[in-house]
Amino acid sequence: MSKAESHYANPLIHESSPYLRQHAHNPVNWQPWGEAALEQARREGKPILLSIGYSACHWCHVMAHESFEDEATAQLMNALFINIKVDREERPDLDKIYQAAFQLLHRRSGGWPLTMFLTHDDQMPFVGGTYFPNTPRYGMPAFSEVLQRVSDHYRQHQLDIRQQNQALLEALRAEEAPAPAAGPIGLTAALLQRACDQLLHNFDPVQGGFGSAPKFPHPTGLDRLLRRGAGGSQQGAPDRGAEHAALFTLRKMAMGGLYDQLGGGFCRYSVDAEWQIPHFEKMLYDNGPLLALYAQAWQVTGDPLFRAIAEATGDWVIREMQAPTGGYYATWDADSEGEEGRFYLWTPDQVRALLDADEYAACSVHYGLDQPPNFENHAWHLRVVVELPELAKRLNADPDLLSTRLDSARRKLFAARSQRIWPGRDEKILTAWNGLMIRGMALAARHLDRADFATSAERALDFIRAQLWRDGRLIAAHKDGQSRFNGTLDDYALLIDGILELLQCRWRDGDLDLALTLADVLLERFVDRAGGGFYFTADDHERLIQRPKPAHDDALPSGNGIAAQVLLKLGHLLGRMDYLDAAERTLRWAEPTVRQIPTACNALLTALEAFLEPAQIVVLRGGDSEILTDWRKRCATPYAPRRMTLAIPTAAVLPAGLLTERRAEFAPVTAYVCSGTQCLAPITTLADLERELA
Fold first, then answer.
1. Which helix (H) or strand (E) holds 85?
2. 50 and 43 Cβ atoms separated by less than 8 Å
3. What is the pLDDT of residues 647-693, one digit of tens each?
4. How far apart are CA 327 and CA 477, in angstroms?
5. CA atoms of 481 and 463, how far apart (whole Å)
6. What is the rounded CA–CA span in Å between residue 201 and residue 357?
7. CATH class of 11-176
8. Number of C-beta neighbours around residue 114 at 10 A
């Protein structure tokens, strides 16, 4: 907090969100979204200035420092507008609506900070932007000039604004409109091939990833390619080109600065095409899917690099992202001491002072410290420039000895870095993001044989059950002992997905029951009964200008795509036709969008894959936990993304349905193998099971 701000306090001081509290001492009279602020706008006839961001957002910090901490700018904002600040991580419903409105108004994507100006009586946006500088630059006017122009326009052009708003509202509502629900589903395996072809068309064969700078990991696209590489009856032979693109990208990301070479975990995106310099914030929602992907890449290849990256990322999650109470925190900030990336940067002299001569000789070449600085011409952000085999040749040294030296160097550098002033950590615990990480940790636990990862995931699930599950409904966020905000489609779908992955590590009575209850809430409160698919918010949610029904993946995989995936699994597992019907209707509703932009709908494509070729479900029943675990582990290899394996003790308490018929026979373990509605005869020897799975 600056000295100028110290005597200010606005209503955000009572909020739990770290992002909102960062603005609690601005001279701007910020208010949280709620009836009090909306009623004030209606009463005073002032337009609303809606600012949406999040705590790890660098440009949010820049705009706050330049404009929101400036007394003259604040006076103008307070005089002309009702100012509302929203944490997009707590209120993804508002963010989705106003990002969509921005795109419709300006014919381009938005971002954060999102700055929208709304009508006072119905919260319709009539002007929007993202970051505005405090002085004219970057081809943009000064924020103070924007404020005055918008205010003048609002007073002088009410009729034009109302006409524009009506057209915008119709466009937003068109996205809600149900698609025809009759007739057979038109999606086929050919669309899976088309999506793969489009991804490969955009693949960068030199640096990996898709397109040019800025470069994002796009986990759903990489998962799609990796699954394509596995082949299948609907997809034909394994696609080695797709597999190569996924694995090559994962290797390049692991070698680059996107990955934290000392502490593990991945940053949000790379500002360059070579993965060198990231936007330094670390988000839970990126690392959950990436952890899963690296564990799967290890399973596909046996390459120790992929295992090392997965283990280091999981270790980082447990060490730095898991609360003592069990839930996973949301983000690490990009900035520390007011500078982006400062925590992660080095100079050769700093590194040399911490290492012995042999360690520095290896480290300097390995991480490019012998090359010109790669961060703003004055500092070095570590990335692997010379891999170990080539390093051994250059230094004429034994690779094992070099590996030992590099390990020692990393430990020393990590210890020294830990003594620096850390970036801020947003310690909100978000249900949807926790679902993603529960899935990632569980999948990594199974493929890497890391029981501590499974334990970590169970602790997170237990926290959600204790603190974010209330009166049969999910709560979206928890901070400082408060659980707030209605759960969305993403919260339910992603948590179910995490639970189903966790159950494949080890069975716990009650976990499947919770997944089924969550699925039932989806069908009761979120489903579009007329058109198919699921709304982002429940039917008893606050009435907003739109009720989104998202099909596209964005930073998170599409809630509709994940919902369809988990309903197909649960439907086949338990014989629940209502789940299977809801999944099919979701695919039928999404068909026009998927056909139009398949690469933006990878989660829905995975659901389509599961619809065309149902998951192979293996249920193992037995009383000897050691033998049961051994059979489960044998089912986990090789890479089989369309297989689900549950090892269920004989004494387990099971929900009603088909699963209760899967009993242990006269053998230590009995295996039931089904695909869709077709099941094999019970299998009682491991050799017979392995033959069926081969």
1. strand 82-87
2. no
3. 999 999 999 888 888 988 778 999 999 999 899 999 999 999 999 99
4. 11
5. 12
6. 46
7. alpha beta
8. 24
Dist. CA 634–CA 538, nearest whole Å:
41
Alpha helices for 613-648 (secondary structure H): 625-635
* 452, 318 contact by CB (below 8 A): yes
Sign of the C-alpha dihedral, residues 510, 663, 668, 634? negative
Domain ranges in the chain are 11-176, 342-422, 616-693
Nearest to 96 by CA among 403, 529, 493, 545: 545
Pairing assessment for the beta strands 114-118 and 82-87 based on DSSP bridges:
unpaired
Residue 24 near residue 92 (C-beta atoms within 8 A): no
Task: Evaluate if residue 180 carries a pLDDT over 80.
Answer: no
Going across the sheet that includes 616-622, the strands are 643-649, 616-622, 669-675, 678-679
Amino acid at 107: R
Q: Of 507, 460, 442, 456, which Cα lies nearest the Cα of 292?
A: 442
- In whole angstroms, give the CA distance from residue 209 to residue 301: 19
User: And the tokens for 176?
Assistant: 């809600």
CA distance 242 to 540: 43
Mean of the per-residue pLDDT values for the chain? 94
Q: Phi-psi category of 246—alpha, beta or left, where left has phi over 0 and alpha has psi -120 to 50? A: alpha
Cα distance between residue 627 and residue 502, in whole Å: 19
Report residue 470 as tokens. Answer: 């209330």
Q: Taken in order 50, 51, 53, 54, is the CA torsion positive or negative?
A: negative
- Please give the pLDDT value at position 627: 92
Positive or negative, the Cα torsion across 453, 445, 304, 494? negative
CA distances from 173 to 97, 166, 415, 640 (A): 11, 10, 54, 41
Average of per-residue pLDDT across 570-598: 95
Tell me, what's the pLDDT at 181?
A: 46
Q: Which residue bears the tokens 């603005």?
A: 23
User: Cα(426)–Cα(479) distance, rounded to whole angstroms?
Assistant: 9
Residue in 530, 520, 526, 535 with CA at minimum distance from that of residue 570: 520
Write down the pTM of the prediction. 0.96
Rounded Cα–Cα distance for residues 245 and 241 (Å): 6
Q: Which of 500, 485, 609, 491 is nearest to 542 (CA)?
A: 485
Backbone angles phi and psi of 110, in degrees to 5: -90, -135
| Average of per-residue pLDDT across 585-590 | 95
pLDDT given at position 235: 61
Q: What is the DSSP string of 38-89?
A: HHHHHHHTPPEEEEEE-TT-HHHHHHIIIIIT-HHHHHHHHHH-EEEEEETT
pLDDT (0 to 100) of residue 173: 87
Q: How far apart are the first and last CA of the chain?
A: 62
Give me the mean pLDDT over the 568-592 stretch.
Answer: 96
- Given a contact cutoff of 8 angstroms between Cβ atoms, the answer to whether 241 and 252 are in contact is no
Q: How far is CA 686 from the centre of its chain?
A: 37
Collapsed DSSP state (helix, strand, coil) of residue 158 = helix
CA angle at 451 for the pair 450 and 453, rounded to the nearest 5°? 70
CA distances from 288 to 184, 265, 272, 282, 498 (A): 35, 10, 23, 11, 10
For residue 370 the two structure tokens come to 């012998």
Q: In the CATH hierarchy, which fold is given to the domain comprising 342-422?
A: Arc Repressor Mutant, subunit A (1.10.10)
